[in-house]
Write a structure and sequence with these properties.
Elements: H1 3-13, H2 24-36, H3 41-49, H4 57-75, H5 80-95
Helix pairs in contact: 2-3
């Protein structure tokens, strides 16, 4: 889709424009947050202001990986002490 078509679609979907002021530091923080969540600045602000839950890309990737690890633990029937050791190693790897 060309930029002109995308803008036309956006105007149809979101016909109202909202303007507000923020400090330079706030703008930088909002832009950084939007980038971390993998969203455009407008989409990020719109989602946050309307109460929609915003998930970071890394959160989704982390949850997927944790589910995979959990399924592996269940599949191999790891005992509680072994699971404790595995979880501690996972925590240390995440902190690195």
């Amino acid at each position: 889709m060309s930029t002109a078509n995308a803008q036309k679609e956006s105007k149809k979907k979101y016909p109202s424009v909202l303007v507000f002021k923020v400090s330079e530091d706030q703008r930088k923080q909002i832009q950084a947050d939007a980038q971390a969540y993998g969203k455009s600045l407008c989409a990020y602000v719109r989602d946050r202001m309307t109460g929609k839950r915003v998930y970071a890309k890394t959160d989704a990737q982390m949850l997927s990986e944790l589910r995979r690890i959990g399924a592996g633990l269940i599949h191999y029937k790891i005992s509680a002490p072994e699971a404790s050791v595995a979880l501690e190693r996972l925590r240390q790897a995440i902190e690195r």
